[in-house]
Amino acid sequence: MAFYTLDPWGGKRDDLRSGILASVIANSNRGKNTKAFTPQDFVPDFDKPVNRKQTVEEQMAIVEQMKIALGDMGHQESED
Fold it and tell me: Which residues contact 41 (CB under 8 A, 6 or more apart)?
């Protein structure tokens, strides 16, 4: 345990390390008048309780975004 206090390892440390890299990349590509990203913006908080469920409208918006991302432009196959 003494070594862990000097050099922590594990999932939380890995998430922080990835958050640092992600924030550097995001900040190098952000606009001049936008708020700077922090590593915590990219680190998942698994201990934070979920306060509400998504509405049907929010779920449908996500489905529409996924369809667009996957190339579905609303065309249906003909049943020939």
Answer: 19, 22, 23, 26
Q: Which 8-state DSSP code applies to residue 72?
A: -
Name the pLDDT band for 42 (thresholds 50, 70, 90). very high
pLDDT reported for residue 24? 96
**Domain with 12 in it:** 2-69
Assigned domain for 78 exists:
no
Residue type for position 63: V
Its pTM surpasses 0.85: no
Q: What length is written for the chain?
A: 80
Q: Is there a domain that residue 40 lies in?
A: yes
